[in-house]
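PROTEIN DESIGN WORKSHEET
SECTION A - STRUCTURE
LENGTH: 620
TOKENS:
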């Protein structure tokens, strides 16, 4: 452009003092792996973990109180199973009464108490900048305690996770935080809730990453880890450090046994698909009822009461059922009946929109199915080396992995609640197999189906941003189409109208005869009718200038473009900021993206994108 519009000997270079753009350079912000803000959020996360630990203890006691009052008529906070009640046929009434109360709370308090909490938290993360209404911090645990305490077939962990997440969001709203920091606090609260329930800090962190954070970076990971550790420490203080489920006397499985667990995993994956579909099919059926949704939990509770009358072990959280399945004391017809009855009671109740969780019921159903498949394998192939207890453990984790699409969380959780490393290889095989089958047969998980129906896109894959892996110097255009600061607007407009080389760009750097940067002008400013044709380009340069350096990443360049709404950035030398070494445009960045896609075989390599910052336009 300079060669075409400017006399090589005419005009004087613009002195630095005449370059207002250079008085206010906007450079990419230096980023740190973990700075002062991270320390501040981590301190909040630790306090949140401690608070969640206390909430878990309070909620457990509250469930015990309501259970004792509802089924035994006594005032006690002891955490007890409702299975030993002597109410007879009247046991059907108890879940219905609890469900009516929950329906009233949902209608006149908050609809957010409905469901098991995690999908709702995911929705808030994606659509509402992780802002959960503060009242849910109180309404969710109370409604869950009523639901479970009156016989609801749910675990306490789901509501505690939801409550911890709501508390984290609340803290993030009352203190000055960004949306990303608020999301971190929400995930930290959720992780702390799970860790406080099961004493499983690592799997709690992984669950938050896979279902809530949608990222893996120190600024979000460390606060979640600290919250989970704090909640676990508090649980150890109250309940000791023993694993929640005892599983001893296991022997290392051989290759044939591992193959068997792998094949079982495929069956668990298939089961996870139909369990998820059943829950949402039931939910769709309730949607068609000609009554207000407030009454749906009461209808679902009728099924809970009837099933509970015939199979009392289906009432309440059922952690004792999981323990009996894992240690092999529950087998045969009793196991089959519990497996089927729990599935019916839980799926109908959850589909009705009551307040409850999914983890404990899925563990019971998966553990029951795993124990039955393990028993069948031992009966048909006695020399294969399958252990029914390991099969039950794999069933628990694999059904959750397939249903919730939380592979790592499911594997590590099953390890942490038993502290049996011998189960790790079978867990890896079975959960991976279940995940594959579930992914092939079902687009969404039990956690995401509800919000996916509302048109919300849920990310399932987390990978390093390729823009962070490419430096500006690797794709900078060194042949710069620039404008001389002393050229008149009339002369420049004539060139733009001629459709010459480079005349179609959105912005142009102003570079004087000595190659020094004077500023930047946009095509819009050059063609603005309000600008006099007699003015020079230097008269309309932008008062502030965004620039990058060769050692900046493309991500830093893109962030700067977005922040200042520009499509082109001059690339300048760090030591001599008057020296332009090239320019980079959005098109250059898109070209790098195309190369990245080619590596993943998404597009034919024969397709090329021309660089619009090159002085010589590439010919097709």
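SECTION B - SEQUENCE
RESIDUE ASSIGNMENT:
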């Amino acid at each position: 452009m300079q060669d075409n519009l400017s006399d090589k000997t005419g005009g004087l270079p613009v002195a630095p003092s005449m370059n207002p753009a250079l008085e206010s350079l906007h450079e990419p912000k230096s980023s740190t792996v973990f700075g002062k803000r991270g320390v501040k959020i981590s301190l909040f996360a630790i306090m949140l973990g401690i608070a969640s630990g206390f909430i878990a203890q309070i909620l457990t006691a509250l469930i015990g109180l309501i259970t004792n009052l509802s089924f035994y008529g006594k005032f006690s906070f002891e955490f007890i199973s409702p299975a030993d009640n002597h109410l007879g046929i009247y046991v059907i009434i108890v879940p219905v009464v609890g469900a009516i109360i929950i329906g009233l709370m949902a209608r006149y308090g908050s609809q957010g108490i409905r469901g098991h909490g995690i999908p709702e938290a995911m929705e808030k993360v994606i659509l509402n900048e992780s802002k959960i209404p503060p009242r849910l911090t109180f309404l969710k645990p109370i409604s869950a305690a009523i639901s479970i305490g009156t016989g609801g077939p749910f675990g306490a962990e789901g509501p505690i996770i939801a409550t911890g997440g709501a508390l984290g969001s609340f803290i993030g709203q009352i203190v000055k935080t960004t949306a990303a920091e608020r999301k971190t606090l929400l995930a930290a609260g959720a992780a702390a809730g799970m860790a406080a329930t099961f004493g499983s800090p690592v799997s709690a962190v992984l669950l938050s990453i896979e279902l809530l954070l949608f990222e893996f970076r120190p600024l979000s990971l460390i606060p979640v880890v600290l919250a989970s550790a704090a909640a676990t420490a508090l649980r150890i203080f109250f309940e000791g450090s023993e694993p929640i489920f005892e599983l001893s006397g296991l022997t290392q499985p051989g290759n044939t046994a591992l193959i068997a667990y792998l094949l079982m995993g495929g069956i668990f994956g298939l089961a996870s698909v139909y369990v998820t579909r059943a829950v949402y099919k039931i939910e769709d059926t309730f949607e068609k009822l000609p009554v207000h949704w407030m009454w749906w939990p009461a209808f679902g509770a009728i099924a809970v009461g009837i099933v509970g009358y015939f199979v009392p072990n289906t009432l309440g959280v059922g952690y004792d059922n999981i323990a009996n399945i894992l240690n092999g004391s529950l087998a045969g017809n009793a196991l089959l009946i519990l497996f089927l009855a729990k599935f019916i009671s839980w799926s109908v109740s959850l589909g009705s929109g009551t307040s409850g969780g999914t983890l404990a019921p899925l563990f019971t159903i998966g553990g029951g199915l795993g124990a039955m498949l393990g028993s069948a394998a031992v009966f048909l192939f006695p020399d294969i080396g399958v252990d029914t207890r390991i099969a039950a453990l794999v069933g628990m984790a694999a059904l959750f992995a397939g249903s919730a699409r939380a592979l790592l969380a499911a594997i590590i959780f099953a390890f942490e609640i038993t502290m049996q490393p011998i189960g790790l290889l079978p867990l890896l095989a079975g959960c991976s197999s279940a995940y594959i089958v579930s992914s092939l047969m079902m687009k969404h998980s039990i956690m995401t189906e509800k919000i996916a129906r509302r048109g919300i896109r849920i990310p399932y894959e987390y990978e390093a941003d390729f823009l962070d892996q490419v430096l500006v110097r690797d794709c900078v255009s060194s042949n710069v189409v620039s404008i001389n600061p002393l050229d008149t607007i009339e002369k420049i407009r004539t060139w733009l109208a001629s459709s010459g080389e480079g005349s179609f760009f959105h912005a142009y750097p102003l570079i004087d005869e000595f190659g020094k940067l004077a500023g930047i002008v946009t095509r819009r400013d050059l063609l603005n009718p309000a600008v006099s044709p007699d003015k020079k380009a230097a008269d309309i340069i932008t008062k502030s200038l965004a620039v990058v350096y060769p050692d900046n990443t493309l991500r830093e360049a893109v962030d700067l473009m977005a922040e200042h709404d520009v499509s082109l950035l001059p690339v300048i030398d760090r030591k001599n900021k008057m020296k332009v070494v090239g320019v980079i445009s959005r098109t250059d960045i898109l070209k790098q993206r195309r190369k990245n896609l080619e590596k993943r075989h998404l597009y034919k390599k024969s397709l090329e994108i021309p660089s619009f910052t090159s002085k010589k336009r590439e010919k097709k």
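SECTION C - NOTES
The two ends are 22 Å apart (CA to CA).
The beta strands are 25-26, 507-511, 517-522, 545-546, 568-572, 580-585.
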